[in-house]
Every structure is written in C-alpha cells, then in structure tokens.
What we know:
Elements: E1 3-8, E2 14-18, E3 37-40, H1 51-61, H2 83-88
The structure holds zinc ion.
Zinc ion (ZN) binds at residues 8, 10-11, 13, 29, 31-32, 34.
Amino acid sequence: xPIYTYGCSSCGLQKDVLQKLSDAPxxxxxxxxxxxxxxxxxxxxxxxxxxxxxxxxxxxSGKAEPKAxxxxxxxxxxxxxxxxxGGAA
Length: 89
Ligand SMILES: [Zn+2]
C-alpha cells in the first residue's frame, strides 16, 4: 500500500497517510477541519526520480540541508558508487 504525504494549506499540518489505490483522496484536514487537505508530491517513492527529488523537496519544505547519504541509499553502498549522488553533487 502506498503512503501519501498530505499537507493542509490552512494550518500547515503535514501527515503521511497509508491508503489503498482505490481509496478516495482525503480533503478534510484532521487538525483544523477545513477542506484544504491535499496530496503532496513528497512521498518516499518520489526519491526514485533522483536529483529532481532534491529540488522539489527544497521548494516544498524550505529546508536546504545537504544529505550525507545518496538519494538511493541503501541501494548504493556509498556516494562514490552512486550515479545519483555522484552526478548531482
Ligand atoms: Zn488544517
């Protein structure tokens, strides 16, 4: 089952939600109750897109901390053997 990251544009709540593919997307924020709860493109599966993940992540979260591990860890043993980290960084 995929995990979706939802965000509320009213109160700023972010929450990972485990949903079936057949489930309807959530719209009501569990925190403030407004219908401003929408699916974000920051789920774990999005990391598979490689360096593009970082640009999107920075824009959404505002964090710009460099990561010690390559994006595809633990698939790659180290950054030097990782085509994603080696190419992007
Ligand atoms: Zn909310």
